[in-house]
Every structure is written in C-alpha cells, then in structure tokens.
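just leaving the lab so this will be short. what follows is a protein written twice so to speak, once as letters and once as structure tokens for the fold. can you read through it and tell me how you think this chain folds. thanks a lot i owe you, the record is right below.

___
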Amino acid sequence: MLGFTALFLGVPLVLGAVVMGATNPEDDARREQFLRQRAGLDGKLLARANKERLGVLLAEVQGKADNEQRYRQALDGKTLGTSSGSTLGRFKAHD
C-alpha cells in the first residue's frame, strides 16, 4: 500500500517539477536579453511609462504623501498618474 501511494503521488509530483523547471527557467539571462532586443517600439514605450509611474508611486510613498485622494479616485476608476492618456481614464464602467 505504501509503494502504491508513493508511486501514484511521488511520480506525478517529480514529473511535474521537472517539466515546470524545463519550460519555465527562473534565470535565463540570454533569453531575456534576446527578447528585450526584439521588443518593438510600443513595448519599449510601455516599459518606459511603467517605470515613470513606478517612480511617481515610490516618490509619493517616500514623501509620505496623503494618498487618500488617490485611493478614492482609483476606486472610481480614475487615475492621477503621470499621463493624461492613461487607459483607466478612457475606459469607464457603465452604470
């Protein structure tokens, strides 16, 4: 009975771990560099915009800014971010 349990629980777990490790390597720097070089202009612009937004967010957190207004706006689907063309401002929920 113990052998049966070990076989039908252990083998799938080990096989799953091997497959996940082979298909999703955690540290594949060469592949990441290749994908970054192939990135299109839109991907690069999106990455830059995300970095700017993260910088604004970090500056607010470090400056202990009053975030109550930002939280209220976010709950309403609005943003107070770095660009006026943000997607959250364009798409509003219909009541």
User: Anything to note?
Assistant: Residues 34-82 form one domain. The helical segments are 2-23, 29-38, 41-62, 68-75, 87-90. The first helix runs from residue 2 to 23.
